[in-house]
Amino acid sequence: MATLVKLLVTSLLLSSQMLRASDLVFNTYIDPPYVSQGDEGVTGISIDILKLLRQHSQLNIELHLLPLKRAYAVALDSANQCVFAIERTQSRESSFIWISPMFISRYAIYQRKLHAKHLASLDDLTKLRIGSYSGSGVGEYLTSFSITVDLAKTNLNSAKKLTRHRTGAWASDILSAAYIRQQFDLDISPKKYHFYSALRAIACNKNSDLGVLDKLQKSLNQLQKSGQIGQVLSQYEQQYQVDLGL
Questions:
Q1: CA 135 – CA 152 distance, rounded (Å)
Q2: DSSP characters for the chain?
Q3: What CA–CA distance (Å, rounded) separates 178 from 160?
Q4: 135 partner at 20 to 30 Å CA-CA among 3, 29, 67, 188?
Q5: What is the secondary structure of 119-151 as a DSSP string?
Q6: pLDDT by position in tens, the chain (length 246)
């Protein structure tokens, strides 16, 4: 009898540990310098913020690397699954519970160095085939204005399409664009047309544990208020010489 009790207690403890193994799963995607994978593991601006959230909230948050479309689909379909950090757009608003804001992304249109045209409004973009990447909120935004958008698998692939004359311009957030221009020798003009800003946020399945999400939101609020997230953003702003609008 004593042995049976011990086995039951052990089983309950193991079950409790398994349930506690992860309060949430964060599904993210390679998008340097927000999320990068290399010799030092998974790094980047979003990962730095995730570390702060884990520490402050004391939640067990598991990280999965997936293609963006897959990360989005998993968060849409499964409880306690989130996708981060994605643009919080009107078309996505009702599909998730949002933990927000993480930070603001500023977007611009880039062209080839020797073929740049003067751009002053969204109407000017209707004359061009604009490159973006699959799952990007900015691609959805441009399409809503009846602008022709060419979607690549990644932001880097979209930039390369521009240099190969497969698109007339490239829509990218300015931090990603700065990283790509710094890391790759591409024929892209540093001049840009700013046209859009969006909140980057954590999008969680609507059937997720509301208590856990409330705790996560409160931690994000406190980290914003204390300036710790601003400090992370400032480091990347200085590194890539961009204005994130802090």
A1: 10
A2: -HHHHHHHHHHHHHHHHHHHT-SEEEEE--BTTTBEEETTEEESHHHHHHHHHHHHH---EEEEE--HHHHHHHHHHSTTEEEEEEE--TTTGGGSEEEEEEEEEEEEEEEEGGG-----SHHHHTTS-EEEETT-HHHHHHHTTT--EEEESSHHHHHHHHHTTSSSEEEEEHHHHHHHHHHS---EEEEEEEEEEEEEEEEE-TTS-HHHHHHHHHHHHHHHHHTHHHHHHHHHHHHHT-----
A3: 14
A4: 188
A5: --SHHHHTTS-EEEETT-HHHHHHHTTT--EEE
A6: 554 444 444 444 443 444 456 899 999 999 999 999 999 999 999 999 999 999 999 999 999 999 999 999 999 999 999 999 999 998 999 999 999 999 999 999 999 998 888 999 999 999 999 999 988 889 989 999 999 999 999 999 999 999 999 999 999 999 999 999 999 989 999 899 999 999 999 999 999 999 999 999 999 999 999 999 999 999 999 999 888 766
The amino acid at residue 58 is: Q
Residue in the block written with tokens 């699954």? 81
* Residue for token pair 């930070």: 103
